[in-house]
Amino acid sequence: MNNFSYVRAADVEAALRLAAVPGAAFIAGGTNLVDLIKGGVTQPRVLVDITQITALAQIQESAQGGVRIGALAPNSDLAAHPLIAARYPLLSQALLSGASAQLRNMATVGGNLLQRTRCYYFYDTGFERCNKRRPGSGCGAREGYNRMHAILGGSEQCIAVNPSDMCVALAALDAVVEVRSLRGTHRIPMTDFHRLPGTTPQRDTNLGSGELITAVELPPSRYAQHSNYLKLRDRASYAFALVSVAAGLDFDGERIAAAGVALGGVAPKPWRLVAFEAALRGRRLAELDLAELAAAATADAETLPYNSFKTELVRRAIVRAVRVAAGLEDA
Amino acid sequence: MHPDERNPNNPALSRRLFLQAAAGAAAGAAAGAAPGASAGAAGSPASPGALQGEAPSAVATSDAPSVSLTLEVNGSRHDLRIEPRVTLLDALREQLQLTGTKKGCDRGQCGACTVLVNGRRINSCLSLAIMHQSDHITTVEGLAQPDGSLHPLQQAFLEQDAFQCGYCTPGQLCSAVGMLDEHRRRGVAAAALTDAEIRESMSGNLCRCGAYPQLLAAIRQAAEAQTGAAGNGARTGSCMQGSGMRTA
Question: Are B26 and A134 a contacting pair at CB < 8 A?
């Protein structure tokens, strides 16, 4: 592991100033960053420890009737928080499906948002080609072992998937990310926070240089009664998703008043199914052909030799997640 | 980390560093890194919080200075001088000779390094020692009473034969202590946990010997003792294979 210097920030303003040097990176839980430093994938020269900024760890009801989650809230505390468990069970379920209890005790909300892909060609510096790690070097996955890779939203340059479960739920829940910089505060809708790779796969997010995530805001809950996070993976726990679906439904009588549905494990960012949601609105589930709608929602899927199974898997997962959310099937 | 990386004379190291240097700025965005103007940090409000030996405004070099650190482990305070990159796991093992905590994968994938920080279980391999200046750390060496009487989980592990080679055991013990405490804090009776819930909650600790059925039995025994519930051997009868905890 390369060496670096370390400073501890007392407040957000201090953190922003301390990070305004070349090669600086914020550190909180460290579960991804320390791992990346060990592997030589990332080489920060200065780590700015923000864990002492206790104001950033709060979870509280917002003035708008939603919940404001401080960026330093540990994943475990967030999942267990009464406001989240009662009003946003989709988020609790997604959080608890990720990593292990130890890692969830360490990992923060802000760090989870910035979690980098688990593509082996990105993670292992022994591979020469990775456009995300070394822009212009090529993509090892396209012609390599691409079983875990994207079927939606990828580019010629990169087909790495975003590994987060939390982010999939946040996308379905219309979360907004609050960002601070020395210039001020601004908000980024969750669905705009992560980027598609295009020709710049080295940039995972639209977080600007020197900016710090300070909070995630959830709008008032609509899906507390009808939601489901379905995660499919190679083993029953402590594994990244091959495919996941976050589904929230709000009913007006028998008709669906609103739906939030997003996919994980299949794209470089949480993949929100806007057209699929629109097709559900105002309809009764009994009159919908969910399988047909799921197929239409993923009609753009482009597969490679090892990940072609994902198309059918994610379509079936969408149907099942929606039916479980509606109470038509047991989880 | 490859063991050879510690050796500055290892030719593989310089090659690796060269390749990493060639990777350039690609990785800078990992955690909100801030490549930008270098001015502005000197005299910042955070300077008083910086640790001794640090120059907050300075750009680090490859030989960043060691820093002073006090760690409280198992109730004892230890003064150390370490490089900022030293993990809690390495500080415990290499500096404090507390070798009960084990290095398995060293990448947060096996749980052998699990310790308790302020009562919460974490992977010490992915945590920098320098970030634990004011924390209370408990390792497997700190579970038993000073008079040598075992922690109820240690006793249960012995009685249920919850290990074979023993390498994962310190991590399993600390993780199980943390798990039962999580439930106590949340007001959930640990004895009411289903086998599936215990398996899921312990999935961050791998056991290559496959002692999972005995681990489950031991944790259930301790959980039932903790909540004062009557033991129910029948609940341990289900096999762990196929769900929750599993062989890796």
Answer: yes
